[in-house]
Queue: 2 jobs
Job 1
Amino acid sequence: MSAPGPGSSGGWRARLVRLPPLLWLTAFFLVPFLITLKISLSDAATAMPPYLPVLDWQAGLEGWSSFLEALDFENYAILWFDSFYREAALSSLAYAGAASLVLVLVGTPLAYALARAPARWQALLVALVVVPFWTSFLIRVYAWIAILKPEGLLNAALLRLGLIAAPLEILNTPTAVMIGLVYAYLPFMVLPLYAVMSRLDGTLREAAADLGAGPVRVFLTVTLPLAAPGIAAGALLCFIPMIGEFIIPDLLGGSDTLMLGRVLWSEFFSNRDWPLASAVAVLMLLIVIGPVVLFRDAGAREAGR
Amino acid sequence: MSGSSAPLLRLEGVTKRFGGTRAVDGVDLALARNEVFCLLGPSGCGKSTLLRLIAGFEHPDSGTIRLDEADITALPAHRRPINMMFQSYALFPHMSVARNVAYGLDRLGRVEQAQRVETLLRLVRLDGFGERRPDTLSGGQRQRVALARALAREPRVLLLDEPLTALDRALREETQSELRALQRRLETSFVVVTHDPDEAMRLADRVGVMDRGRIVQIGPTSELYEQPASRYVAGLLGDVNLIPGTLGPDEPGPTRAVETAFGELRARAPAEPLEAGAAVVVALRPERIVLAEHGLPATVAERIFLGGRISRTLRMADGSTLRASGSAESAEADPAGAPVHLSFAAEAASILPA
């Protein structure tokens, strides 16, 4: 995706090396995106495929011009003016933002503990963070239903302990969605953070302690600022897919949980409105590109300093 | 040395194990006020661990560390009035020079802090560099920032881990005299760790030579150089001839005879009593050998002119060689291959256990 750097431009060998990723991105990202973009500019129709216009190859130039004339931004106007879609977008941003914040708060100490663990334990502990990936994502989310439902494991345990008198309503609430998001994305937060933190120079912490800083001040003034790039990378790595998350809000959230992924699904499968669904997909991409560009600029500043 | 005669820092029986090995093994050490003490030894001898024990980054398995008679053995690093200048300097890369120096001054008010930072930067001749980032400084400048930062809290003891190693030769000589001048001015005690005998001799009042976790000899550098207690110490501090031999009979007086392959020598009697007939080595510095009218016969095998002095390789009667170095004046008298006689003052050579 990135432009070729200086020095990589020379020779057919270098160009050959760049070819496979270029072909891959063209075939599996650029072409599907262009198709989606085109559909988003079309109108829904009861037909096969369920949208208009379809390019008439036989009509030649005439066909092209009528094809292009039929494209418009009507679906984007709907997204903009219908508050339902605006709310879905804002709600997605809110869920992803809040969950990213919780992930930073939970993931940072966890990654720090991993990085400071005795060397012989670290490989095992990191493996434990990754182990959940060996089970299907869908099954793990279903497991949370079993835990969170009114007669589920959590309520049974709390009732047994006498901490609550009646089962808590957690499933089908925003809380359940947050729990699901934080649970599912924690490894994506912890791993890049751990990578940064385990590479931090330990003598800097010692120097800070030597100058009278207690453990808390050492962490806040030395470890945390130096780990900031890892925190940003982890948060971004979680934020982006959470914007479009579908399974977690669908299974754990109530029927009123609004998230773009869910809206997209229902437009596509329930309403069979492919053009509007495509417009939602393009909108999602635009929302996600913002933070990526910000992060890349920050990275470039850091590198160029 | 000021008022109190009690040592400033005292280590008693300090031992630190890592796994099965004793990195520091029963070290006793007393550091006087205003003293520059140097721990000298090759890498892995335990000198850095000992420094880290004094700093508080490690805690001993047994033994006590006292500062001004107060037991600080269990005190964590951030509570000790001891600061360290790290070998890598360990400057905080995300802070300006001024904020690095001010890091230990968080108890002071903003204005006081700024004044103190300015004073410290002037002390290390870096005024005007406060807003710079450490990665824009040269190695020598970074070292001076590290020094200013370590001095900011006016430590009772300043620990310096290989302070000159990372600097080039010209800068080293300048820096070592600056360090000495600074130490005299601030009246702080320094503990320097180094593997470089030259650095030790330049900086230290006293040197402790370490070997496998133990301090094997302590004394002023001149004493360690002239009167080493072991082959290890003799070899560590500069060039030395080690001549194997057999110890002669016990006799009164400061010197004893040693029978070697090329004749009998006399040298300073060993510090610890050794039986007559014991295998020993005679440690003899090259510059202590003089060419004379009488003495042990030898031939000049090689002669190298080194400007101020001449280095000679002398072949002895049994075919073994000794290195001798002398002033360049006598250069014409003994061309290569010339027969010569050599002698040395008995007190200048040491008899050491083989």
Note: The CA atoms of residues 157 and 321 of chain B lie 46 Å apart.
Job 2
Amino acid sequence: MKKWMGTAFTTVLIISALTACGGNGNNANVEQGANGNKTAAKGNSEITVYTALEDDQIQTYLESYKAAYPNVKVNIVRDSTGVITAKLLAEKDNPVADVVWGTAATSLLVLDQNNMLEGYSPKGIENIQPEFKDTQQPAHWVGIDAWETAIAVNTAELEKKGLEVPKSYADLIKPEYKGMIVMPNPASSGTGFLTVNGLQQLMGDSEAWSYLDKLDQNIAVYTESGSKPAKMAGTGEYPIGISFGYRAIQEKKGGAPVEVVFPSEGSGWDVEANALMKKDNIKPEAKEFLDWAISDEPMKKYNENYAILAMKTDSAVVPEGYTKDPISQLIKLDLNKAAETRDATLSEWTKRYEAKSEKQ
Amino acid sequence: MRIAKWNTAFTLKRRTGSWFERIAMLLMLAGLCVMILLPLFSLFSKAVTDKYGQYNGLSNFIDYFSTPALLHSLQHTVYVSLLTAILSVVLGFLFAYALTRTNVPGKMFFKTVSLLMLFAPTMMLGIGLTYLFGNQGLITTGFFEALPFHWDIDLYGPTGIVMAEVMYTFPQACLILVVSLSFADFNLYEAAKTMGAGKGRIFFTITLPNMKYGLISSFFVSFTLAFTDFGAPQVVGGSYNVLATEIYKQVIGQQNMGMGATVGIILTLPAILAFIVDRFVTRKQHAISSRAVPYRITPSRKRDGLFLTFCILASGMILLLIGTVFAASVIKIWPYNLSFSLKHYDFSKVAGGSLQPFWTSLRMSAWTALIGTAATFVGAYLIEKTKSFPVLRQAGYFLSILPLALPGIVLGLSYIFFFNKASNPMHGIYGTIWILVMANIAHFYSVSFVTATSALKKLDKEIETASDSLGVPRYKTLLRVTIPLCLPAVLEMAMYLFINSMVTVSAVMFLYAADLKLASVSIVNMEDAGDVAPAAAMSTLIVITNIGVRLLYEAVTHQIKKKTQAWQTRQQ
Amino acid sequence: MPQSYLSIEGIRKTFGSFTALEPIHIEIPKNEFVCLLGPSGCGKTTLLRMIAGLESPDGGRLLVEGKDITSLPPAKRNIGFMFQSYALFPNLTVAQNVAYGLKEKKLSRQQVQSKVEEVLSMVDLLSYATKYPAQLSGGQQQRVALSRAIALSPDFLLLDEPLSALDAKVREKLRLEIRRLHEQLGMTTIMVTHDQEEALTMADTVVVMNNAKVIQSGAPEDIYERPNSRFVADFIGAVNFLEGMNGGEALAIRPEHVRLGLGQETGSYEAVIESLEFRGSFYRVTMQVQGPLSQYFQSGIMADLNRAVVKQYQLEKNRRVFIQLPEEHLIRFGPNRRERLEVVG
């Protein structure tokens, strides 16, 4: 019997060992071996970072951080914009997060209105364009990039049905697209919110709601995630997906028969921004993380995914997948107003369209 | 008189069971309380507090029943579960009947196929259905326009959920019904025939009444499983909300813990009902007479032909579904580029993050199997074989069976409430792999407990007393005699715990830490983000692992049977 | 009476509302072979398990040579216990089973082995040492259990229905074997059985129990010839009851003591043969007594007659005969025992 128990125990240990090794190479959260690096003397510490950045981007972004701060363990909590916002608000009295990274500025403004953010101007804040950072001194939030509404359209499926590729918001409410459009739920998705908010600021409140009512007629389903509509358009599950630029371009690059359409009226947008959480014990590592998050290395990486950087750049190159300077595609927008009306907008939206939302 | 009574109590105390046993018993009870009872209390107390942690009585429940959207989710869930249970029992009955009462060829094959679904997370069933019946599905598009017909069943919504749940609950219903169909007394059939009863009359007067408890039990099992499942509605539910996804939304999406707990309690009601019915049914189900004659299958080509067709269709559907998921995981871009590619197995570019969740799941499942088997077996041993604290043993038995009534999602929620309090001395395990292991052990405790108990019941009752009379400490006899004799059951428990830990999502989805994402959870995340093909790939990995573990189990069991043949055969 | 070795002083036990043992008093001399005899549920097994220390009494004391062992665990009582089911460990070989308790003692490997060989050869099973229990016949398993029980050279050998699971032939052989081992090793042996024949043939002393009480104890002949109660008379061997003869006194007579003749004599009763049952070495003849005396023989009367007598008298059904009940063989329970009779009857 002892033999049996021994064997079973050894098996588990081996599995544990193997699986632990299997993970080492590709997990941001597992520390790398220290080799006399500059922060090694500080010993081991950890910070908790909440983020709404895309899963597939986080690992690449963090590479340069890990190289610079090998001894800091970063606990990433990743979820959609709506969930991260709700989670932060729910933890208001007892915040878990040290840092919020790459989360919609409209959400950070809500947190700030709740007095949950600590002012901190990270090193290099002067390089950030004024419209992409907080106006207060020290800044309560600092942007890293902006993202915007884009429509992924599956040309193969539309061809089969003999339909034109829609070019504008106005096109999307044409009756021939009935049941073909997927859009993210603004309550959970940042992309969904910036799209609805963009429409509101573009058309005015009542006009926007009557437009959304008509759009609702054509919507097959509202998704939880802002990426999913683009991916669904990619597989043709639903041919038209209201999503954001990066994701739609990724689908096209991956080989799906997708055309990326930026609506001719202009795109709603939001800033992916960072902030320091107000709590009793603010760790120096948290500030270091914020410094790093707007430094050159990660900015280069953000740029691989987002055309519009918060940083002032001289380059006039039109990024891959775009037909013109992406900034000109953005509509005029007041982020503060968006944050103020966020709650009202979401409850109005929920009241009107919840029934068609995925899982609701 | 009083003195005599006191004296009795005293002598009992003095002489029943060793110190070692009594301490073990208390530890086990403490463990069960921490694992099951206390978290449940936290859940109940959470259900009567508001968003900000203030006591608000039943207002969450009042809110729930006065919010139409929330109430809809209850109606939806009941509707879907009822339909699932009916279909599952009917199909399971036909399949079980084919396996036990007909001469259909290839029974082994059909039986194996029917069990395949137990190795898959329920999200996989949804994913499979998406690839078959979704807008770009194999069947919807007539094999990508290769066939002249199209068939759109309008998958997303109740249709998809019911299809997935039926496939999920079918093997479970089938297992129960096979057992209850196997217990038949052929004497009754012959007696009925000699009295001139026709086939229909025999079926309704003998076959059905004989298995009524099996039918009730399989109905409730199917109903409860469908009622509490999260994975399938998450994938194919579309805009059709059910309770399990509602909890997820309340807790994760809106961080409304109070309402989450409220819905959790509502979710538990049918499971508790099923639990009571099952207890009742088990008690009623009397042992079959020792003079019963096993059922003899009469030859009938027509009957066999019909049942063979049914078995082929049912197995075909299961294999088609699994095969499609496997295929979709290695197809470059479904449906536009059908060339072979392993790119979906590189999870670094999708919401899964990496292959890490798979390794974490493996590690967690291995620990669950090891610790869970040991804990459950010792628990069952203490309750079955010792004499200490008869009242506490009863309590222990109840706590051991209770998890049968607890949906995973409810257990997971209770764990957040209980362990995520900074004041809890066990707060430290929150966010580690151990809370996942613990939740899984609690979730799957009852079934392995019952397995262990029935194995122990089969042993000679005097093994322990024989050991006492020979002056050998009981723990030595446990190690040297009892456990070796129960080894097949022990292995079965380990396999059961491992496989279920690999596929479960409901109990762990609230509990995993960011760096401990699990394979099953990553399937949900990937599917959520629209990365369906990688989700299919991850499902494939889980199924293959589980089939591997099952084969390993079969091989080891076979070896053990061979080695221990000398002491297995009983001579009269 | 020889000096008491084991004293059972007022041992009692209840399970909930069920009384398993009323306070029991028994004195057992050293080296005796004692049988606890009684119908199932009479408390005999409970008593045996208490002597072994496997159950704890609610009250009373157990003394061995005057020392109180009531609260000693089984391991410290130096007993060998043989279970009704044998409780052999199925996954251990015969030799491992026998060595199981020995390994707890501080013995060398050699000593253990030679002890195992010794006891196995005592029961003639040495050649089966490496077999598993399931590979042996019932009788062989019984002998393994027996040798396991005696391997520790116990002061007491306690046997719980050791022969009940065996068929008649094997049982008879093993009776002798157990008795032989008892004499050879000189232990005090206590055996529980419900089979009166087993008790009478094997025991030095028989303790008859019923309804949680000891009814009678004594040498087998005493118990058989002079049962103190209707219950004992009926439980041990066949018996005819004579109701209300001699002014209400209950009398009984064993069938083998009933005499039979063809002609009327003084003190004989007229009877008609109702059935003749061939029992191998004798016939059991059942008769109905005729006339007014029949009221004393309400359930008829049995007589065991040898074949020669049956042949000689040409006995057959409906044949008229005369029976005699020899005074010296009449069993009297006496008026002082009426109370017990009522309890039992």
Note: The domain at 356-517 of chain B is CATH 1.10.3720.10 (MetI-like fold).
